[in-house]
Automatic annotation (TrEMBL), chain A:
<dbReference type="InterPro" id="IPR016162">
    <property type="entry name" value="Ald_DH_N"/>
</dbReference>
<comment type="subunit">
    <text>Homotetramer.</text>
</comment>
<dbReference type="Pfam" id="PF00171">
    <property type="entry name" value="Aldedh"/>
</dbReference>
<dbReference type="InterPro" id="IPR016161">
    <property type="entry name" value="Ald_DH/histidinol_DH"/>
</dbReference>
<protein>
    <submittedName>
        <fullName>AL1A3 dehydrogenase</fullName>
    </submittedName>
</protein>
<feature type="domain" description="Aldehyde dehydrogenase">
    <location>
        <begin position="40"/>
        <end position="488"/>
    </location>
</feature>
<dbReference type="InterPro" id="IPR029510">
    <property type="entry name" value="Ald_DH_CS_GLU"/>
</dbReference>
<keyword id="KW-0520">NAD</keyword>
<feature type="active site">
    <location>
        <position position="280"/>
    </location>
</feature>
UniProtKB/TrEMBL annotation, chain B:
<dbReference type="InterPro" id="IPR016162">
    <property type="entry name" value="Ald_DH_N"/>
</dbReference>
<dbReference type="InterPro" id="IPR016160">
    <property type="entry name" value="Ald_DH_CS_CYS"/>
</dbReference>
<dbReference type="InterPro" id="IPR029510">
    <property type="entry name" value="Ald_DH_CS_GLU"/>
</dbReference>
<feature type="domain" description="Aldehyde dehydrogenase">
    <location>
        <begin position="24"/>
        <end position="448"/>
    </location>
</feature>
<dbReference type="GO" id="GO:0004029">
    <property type="term" value="F:aldehyde dehydrogenase (NAD+) activity"/>
</dbReference>
<dbReference type="InterPro" id="IPR015590">
    <property type="entry name" value="Aldehyde_DH_dom"/>
</dbReference>
<feature type="active site">
    <location>
        <position position="264"/>
    </location>
</feature>
<keyword id="KW-0520">NAD</keyword>
<dbReference type="Pfam" id="PF00171">
    <property type="entry name" value="Aldedh"/>
</dbReference>
Length: 489, 448
């Protein structure tokens, strides 16, 4: 998703606009169990846990609750599938790529089902789930399908009479713990590269949003991945998640979630078997708007940048730095945008913003909003929940924010846009870099030198110039400092 | 594996014209030429004969498709990959038809067209589809306050001249990389075998490639081919064919606009059988190396060097195998070898066979035409071949095997490398050190 900046539409000679997809109104949830060896299992303990629809606050269904014994079973299956001589190890690389392509085909076939499930489970608007989440999933699978037979080693002319070559071999059993903000997309970001390289997986999806991850288990089986290559264990972090990060037979763990839990995972990895760790954590991403920016573009990008996905993005533009000359105009236009943002039923095609994911997040966001008010930020609009509407929060804009306020330092993960003022480039670089996060940053300017200077000065994994959330399978993604270790894609 | 579908030996020929801008055109001159069925010597159909005027039209179309801002230039790299995958899907859909057409026009056994040629075509296109959005440039930290990066941009209008021995596969080898990287193509297909490539042109349109991105011209080398290699608006020419014509193409490129040139030419590839080789496997593979595709492979193992200890046995077994090779109607599933592609090749090969006999090589089997109709030649084996004989130095491109004797590794390496060619080579041995030593000493693009 990106502001296309007026770019010419992608080269298709046929310019027909297809009709908008519609969600499935009475969708039965078929897959609620633990997926191991291409089969569905009940939990060892017999326990189940509920998953809720955050728009209606109703329980959707119960899910088998995985814990350590289930993780152990999954790891056994993944290890067996990774044995030398197994069907998966014997499979040639282009055939792995074909399976990934076919999986993408099945996601395309079941796109409406998956988008409906994702909206039911997360509250994100259906059309966004369909056009953004599912699009990203399909493209990422196809991108990695293409890489499968292109992972090349080298021959190296070492001294003396040796034949020396490197081979890039799969790591083995990979643990993946995925978040609730983009459940299916974050799962595909882990699964596609891992499978492309020939690994096997043990996945724990977020307890808030297991449905699409479990559905994809059925597609993995349908496509024909050998049993044990992908295993999915729904459950909670302190139980199933911890079992994965401390497991002695898991060779690597990839985690997307909060910095707080990221630290626990890295610690558990080091205390157990020194498994390799990659982390995609939080961000408090600066969005720097210079006086010479295209103001309409900057306002719209900053707005979408912070409010997209109910504010629940690691890439959220949650510190907007505006050069003082244009500050009042920028605030005014941002407030206009925020006030127009349509909050409502995510299955309604007009809705732009659904509910927050759960009560815990909802409470945290409101608490931070209160802190903004108390610490002296100016509340321009919003600032409270929508009455009698469960987990819905009004799009909120604060101006006159200063760096010491909590809303300027802590990741809010909600529909709250803090706008700050700056005088000079040197100052804004220093302030932008002054926190422990460093995931993404954005710069709005027409000046070439300024753009390049900021791009290299900002301590940020990704820097977007005159765009926002331009995320594509082809480009790597990851954080500096405590926003993460390593890169995905 | 599912069985091969039965072929239709009389497939309908829907496409016989020149393909420009996703449309079918007669030649500007209105001339046509016949495409012959080499199994019978009969004309299959007439095909439009492209010449310079048609090449000019095609180049105009390609240039327009390559203009900045055009649909092809604006298309996401990943979308180019999608189109290539779609083309692969369509070829898979029409696999049996294409295999039958290939066999009709070229003479190769249908079972092989279906299982080998078509399989490799699909895999090649899918492989390059995967590369399309993975061509990375670099950012480079120069001295001074500079921002420096490389971008890998398409070359432009690519002339592609393809041969008759693997018509569809050579087409895929050229189209896959060129289209994955965003180029536009003007392709001249071999006059002996235009039909399958023209059918693929219809699939290129069906897949959704914008008009002008791929243009295909049937025609002759001295006319259409020369027009391509000397064209001032073609940015690169890629040619697969004989070394003799390769010289002409490079010369024309130099004399016109210095277009980039890549050439895949002939070979006289050495196949080295050490005395510790697995004899069964070596005989089997050496037979395949020479006789596959009626001997019409640029990488044919056409100098079989056998270490003296195992020479006698190897020769006996190779002759046995050659005598057992089934030559016949390429649509028959029992057939292993079809006809040579045309009368010119047929006569040339028979000429080499008599030269071989004249120069003193020992004819051990074969040596004659295998049928009264069509261009079939008996699988032929010469023993006691010496390095200076014509049949040991020149590319025969037919089912004629040369077996030579050697004593030591150093000797065979020197003899193997003593050739103006260097396309491929092979070594058969169980010894790891010998394998590494020989493969690293041989001057050949590929060593098996």
């Amino acid at each position: 998703m990106a502001a296309l900046n007026g770019a010419v539409e992608n080269g298709q000679p046929d310019k027909k606009v297809p009709p908008l997809p519609r969600p499935l109104r009475s969708l039965e949830v078929k897959y609620t169990k633990i997926f191991i060896n291409n089969e569905w299992h009940e939990s060892t303990s017999g326990k189940k846990f509920p998953t809720y629809n955050p728009s209606t606050l109703e329980k959707i269904c119960d899910i088998e609750e995985g814990d350590k014994p289930d993780v152990d079973n999954a790891v056994e299956a993944a290890k067996a599938a990774f044995q030398r001589g197994s069907p998966w190890r014997q499979m040639d690389a282009p055939s792995r790529g074909r399976l990934l392509h076919k999986l993408a085909d099945l996601l395309e076939r079941d796109r409406v089902i998956l988008a409906t499930l994702e909206t039911m489970d997360t509250g994100k608007p259906f059309l966004q789930a369909y056009f953004i989440d599912l699009e990203g999933c399909i493209k990422t699978l196809r991108y990695y399908a293409g890489w499968a037979d292109k992972i090349q080693g080298r021959t190296i002319p070492v001294d003396e009479n040796f034949v020396c070559f490197t081979r890039h071999e799969p790591m083995g059993v990979c643990g993946a713990i995925t978040p609730w903000n983009f459940p299916l997309l974050m799962l595909v970001w882990k699964m596609a590269p891992a499978l492309c390289c020939g690994n096997t997986l043990v996945i724990k999806p977020a307890e808030q949003t297991p449905l699409t991850s479990l559905y994809i288990g059925s597609l993995i089986k349908e496509v024909g991945f050998p049993p044990g290559v992908v295993n999915i264990v729904p459950g909670y972090g302190p139980t199933a998640g911890a079992a994965i990060s401390t497991h002695d037979s898991i060779d690597k763990i990839a985690f997307t979630g909060s910095t707080e839990v990221g630290k626990l995972i890295k610690e558990a990895a080091s205390k157990s078997n020194l498994k390799r760790v990659t982390l995609e954590l939080g961000g408090k991403n600066p969005c720097i708007v210079c006086a010479d920016a295209d103001l309409d573009l900057a306002v719209e990008c900053a707005h979408q940048g912070v409010f997209f996905n109910q504010g629940q993005c690691c890439t959220a533009a949650s510190r907007v730095f505006v050069e003082e000359q244009i500050y009042p105009e920028f605030v005014k236009r941002s407030v206009e945008f925020a006030k127009k943002r349509l909050v409502g039923d995510p299955f309604d095609a007009r809705t732009e913003q659904g509910p927050q994911i759960d009560q815990k997040q909802f409470d945290k966001i409101l608490e931070l909003i209160e802190s903004g008010k108390k610490e002296g930020a100016k509340l321009e609009c919003g600032g409270l929940a929508i009455e009698d509407r469960g987990l819905f929060i009004k799009p909120t804009v604060f101006s006159e924010v200063t760096d010491n306020m909590r809303i300027a330092k802590e990741e809010i993960f909600g529909p709250v846009q803090p706008i700050m003022k700056f005088k000079s480039i040197e100052e804004v670089i220093r302030r932008a870099n002054s926190i422990e996060y460093g995931l993404t940053a954005a710069v709005f300017t027409k000046n070439l030198d300024r753009a390049l200077t900021l791009a290299s000065a900002l301590q940020s994994g990704t820097v977007w110039i005159n765009c926002y959330n331009a995320l594509y399978a082809q480009a790597p993604f990851g954080g500096f400092k405590m926003s993460g270790n390593g890169r995905e894609l | 594996a599912s069985p091969i579908p039965a072929p239709n030996p009389r497939p309908d020929i829907a496409y016989t014209k020149i393909f420009i801008n996703n449309e079918w055109h007669d030649a500007v001159s209105k001339k046509t030429f016949p495409s012959i069925n080499p199994a019978t010597g009969e004309v299959i159909c007439q095909v439009a004969e492209g010449d310079k005027a048609d090449v000019d039209k095609a180049v105009e179309a390609a240039k327009a498709a390559f203009r900045l801002g055009s649909p092809w230039r604006r298309m996401d790299a990943s979308q180019r990959g999608k189109l290539l995958n779609r083309l692969a899907d369509l070829i898979e859909r029409d696999r049996a038809y294409l295999a039958a057409l290939e066999t009709l026009d070229n003479g190769k056994p249908y079972a092989i067209s279906y299982l080998v040629d078509l399989d490799m075509v699909v895999k090649c296109l899918r492989y390059f589809a995967g590369w399309s959005d993975k061509f990375h440039g670099k950012t480079i930290p120069l001295d001074g306050d500079f921002f420096c990066y490389t971008r890998h941009e398409p070359v432009g209008v690519c002339g592609q001249i393809i041969p008759w021995n693997f018509p569809l596969l050579m087409q895929a080898w050229k189209l896959g990389p060129a289209l994955a990287t965003g180029n536009v193509v003007v392709m001249k297909v071999a006059e002996q075998t235009p039909l399958s490539a023209l059918y693929v042109a219809s699939l290129i349109k069906e897949a959704g490639f914008p008009p002008g991105v791929v243009n295909i011209i049937p025609g002759y080398g001295p006319t259409a081919g020369a027009a391509i290699s000397s064209h001032m608006d073609i940015d690169k020419v890629a040619f697969t064919g004989s070394t003799e014509v390769g010289h002409l193409i490079q010369k024309a490129a130099a004399e016109s606009n210095l277009k980039r040139v890549t050439l895949e030419l002939g070979g006289k590839s050495p196949n080295i059988i050490m005395s510790d080789a697995d004899m069964d496997w070596a005989v089997d593979q050496a037979h395949f190396a020479l006789f596959f595709n009626q001997g019409q492979c640029c990488c044919a193992g056409s100098r079989t060097y056998v270490q003296e200890d195992v020479y006698k046995e190897f020769v006996e077994r190779s002759v046995e195998k050659a005598k057992a090779r089934v030559v016949g109607n390429p649509f028959d599933f029992k057939t292993e070898q079809g006809p040579q592609v045309d009368e010119e090749q047929f006569k040339k090969i028979l000429g080499y066979i008599s030269t071989g006999q004249r120069e003193g090589a020992k004819l051990l089997c074969g040596g004659n035409p295998a049928a009264d109709r069509g261009y079939f030649i008996q699988p032929t084996v010469f023993g006691d071949v010496q390095d200076d004989m014509t049949i040991a130095r020149e590319e025969i491109f037919g089912p004629v095997m040369q077996i030579l004797k050697f004593k030591t590794i150093e000797e065979v390496i020197e003899r193997a490398n003593d050739s103006k060619y260097g396309l491929a080579a092979a070594v058969f041995t169980k010894d790891l050190d010998k394998a590494n030593f020989v493969s690293q000493s041989l001057r050949a693009g590929t060593v098996w």
